[in-house]
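Readers of this paper often ask what the protein records in our data store actually look like. Such a record has a labelled line for the sequence and another for the backbone structure tokens. Nothing more is needed to write down the fold, since each code stands for a local backbone conformation. The record that follows is passed on verbatim for readers who wish to inspect the format.
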Amino acid sequence: MTNLSDFSDNELAQILDAPGAVLKGATLADGQPGAIQFFKEMASGAKVFREAQEHENDFVREVAVAMRARLGEQDAAEAEAARNPASQVGVAAAAAATERAATEGTRPDPEGETARAVELTGASVKVLRERADAADVEAYADWILRIAEEVAEAAGTKEGGFFSKRVLVTAGERDFIDRLTAAVGR
């Protein structure tokens, strides 16, 4: 079995960031979602992440649990920063605050987010193919694709205007899934 401890910090960051990037990319693949569509898609993605914490593949389960732990650590750090602003002194904290200030209130870039998700997924799978068990690579790739597919199918959308028929997966979502499929080598 492949362990997360087998990877460098940068490789581990890629492996843990890719599923979240795919969730975000799938949500934005057909442009800016409305509130109800966004809620449905995020709920669907959250369900896939919860299921992964009990996945039959040990590596996928380990990735999902590590992602949850990392989110908990980030939440705790943000809570500490709110309680004690002096704890956030230094160059790294100033850089993070500057980045947050620059991006708060801005609308996400659908093309940029989907491209980032595809690139990050491709890099993660490449690292895994070089150093992980084949079964773990396939399970991770399947999980990544499942995230994108479940989110894409979560909310039907009308393409082409008010009188058009509702489609389950839009052309933008299908394109994103196809690019992800190519990125994982299928």
